[in-house]
Model the fold of this input.
Amino acid sequence: MTTNIAYFVSPHGFGHAARASAVMTALQRRCDHFHFEIFTKMPAWFYTESGVTNFEYHDLLTDIGMVQKNALVEDVHQTVEALDNLLPFAPQLIDRLAGQLIETDCRLVVCDIAPLGIAVAKAAGIPSVLIENFTWDWIYEVYVDQAPEIADHAAYLQTLFDSADYHLQTEPICRRQPVDLTVGPISRITRAPIGQVRAQLGVPETAKMVVLSMGGTFWDYSFLEKIDPQEAIYFVVAGSQPLEPRDRLISLPLGIYHPDLVNAADALIGKVGYSTLAEIYQAGTPFGYIARSTFRESPFLVDFVEANMPCVQFDEAQLANGSWISQLPRLLAFPKIKRPSANSADEVAGFIRGLL
Done:
């Protein structure tokens, strides 16, 4: 007998889709009768690539999050404009979606910080589960001085988040609360052996391999022209536009299975975002991280990285001018950390299955 679960996922970056995919695939590993109705703006191919099967994709704006200028800088005023156009959620939208969930016999609504799902679950009379390491009302609080009108949106969203029937938090947690379950970082599992990944990339097993990743957001990688081509290091740029072919410089479009890439690397350099952090934590790979100085979540991620992972901090200027190259020997000197094989997604899957 098939069990239908609705999953509402925030479109803010790939981190929420990656965490949601990890939970869905963990449920599938426990039992093959789950079917997912996925509501999000993140593309369907991401879930397919992540190993999610037996799902129906609904292209829907579930929340705004933050409008980004680039991978590191958000645009507060455009965010407010987008929130004004979406919130409060239209009763007709909530009723239509509630009818869909009833018609498809969904027994549970899971929300990765997409508050629309909680409102729809209430209207449909279906239990809701909120999974988060932060919520948008908490993020928006720091922008009230810049954009006072964001306070009303934060208050509205707080009411929705507080009304979830079950509340789960995943490390690194930004605001700890009494919740139903607290787990470690949630990452999609690795699938391919390191040797196989390196062979596909054309990287010798004994060579040093450094991955550069800005979490799937556009970034100018022109600084790579400053890399000394004589360095015996292979650089793999994830999610980039095609780069000028050079020795030991490999550019990969979006679509490669990122956890395998992280696992095969000797180090990763990139933005501190949730899914990148979780995948690096699982792989035990040294992390050359770049913090987002204006985003409220970032210091909590940085504290977790510094406490639990071999790491070196870089800033945006170092990335742009190429001076980070001089720090590579220090980063590559760290050994990889062996982690227990248990994945926090399995704990969440066990909790959800218990509800059903």
Remarks:
- Residues 12 and 45 are 16 Å apart (CA to CA).
- The longest strand covers residues 3-9.
